[in-house]
Amino acid sequence: MNEHKIFSSIDAVQEQLSSHRYISDQLLSTILYLSYHLHKPVFLEGEPGVGKTEVALVLSEILSTRLIRLQCYEGLDVNSALYEWNYPKQLLRIKMDEQCQLSPDEMGSVIYSEPYLIKRPLLDAIQSAQDSAPVLLIDELDRADEEFEAFLLEILSDFQVSIPEIGTLKATKKPMVLITSNRTREIHDALKRRCLYHWIDYPDFKKEIEIIRTRVPNIEESLAHQIAIFMQNIRKEDFMKKPGISETLDWAEALIKLNRRTIDDQAVEQTLGCILKYREDIEKFKTNLWADDQKRLQLLSSLSE
């Protein structure tokens, strides 16, 4: 489908997301619509597992284009994100040409050329956009250092890079950029000002059950209903890491694999590791909820409402 038709309206964006099994709301669809037409990056914040990264994956499918992903981490530097020279290949070429009596300038022009350039995600996104614009995902920016965040400002502003040995490389068509953050630290205002912002929250009951039906189509309606209620209730507890929608879907698949048609004591105890991912949270769940007969029965009885 023509990308102009995909982004012809907010409703068209939402329809495309739904057809690719991503249940969006009007606000997110509006932000994506504006991002396309204003050529601005989208900055997505939210708790882990609520579907931030999935937005980029689905967009690349909708647009039938490449997804280029830069996974951020502490210590990420420019060389790892942008480009570096292939030194082993350069040395091999020098050894091969030693008998050719090339001058240093001639040799430099050979080994410092694009065939010896290793493209990292950001440079790959710039050059790929010369043909058809990819979707660039800068994932979990809050894990990277502030120095890298500052470098990113320049790239996002112009989408060009100057390589001393080659010159300036500039994207002819800017890629669609999505930046995600789990908010383990605050991202600087200077970067946020260059983006359209959207917070992805945990889904409410209606949206969660719709997501389960869409992503796990073989699930029985009653089981999907029980899972959604259970997850809504358990997120009210003060856990280190509340379960997101990714945990909901993992749990649904696990229960189906175990041939469970309803949620009972045994089903919860068998699959608790699908829901909670910290030992402290599992211990808190067992101590504060499961060991208390009244709370446990109240939690299980709510599933039939």
Report what the structure shows:
This protein folds into two domains: 3-82 and 120-199, P-loop containing nucleotide triphosphate hydrolases (Rossmann fold, 3-Layer(aba) Sandwich); 205-304. Helices cover 51% and strands 12% of the residues. It contains 17 helices and nine strands. The protein has a five-stranded parallel β-sheet with strand order 2-5-8-1-9, with helices on both faces. A two-stranded antiparallel ribbon has the order 3-4. A hairpin with a 3-residue loop joins strand 6 and strand 7. Helix 2 crosses helix 3, helix 11 packs across helix 12 and helix 11 (205-215) packs across helix 13. The radius of gyration is 24 Å and the shape is elongated.
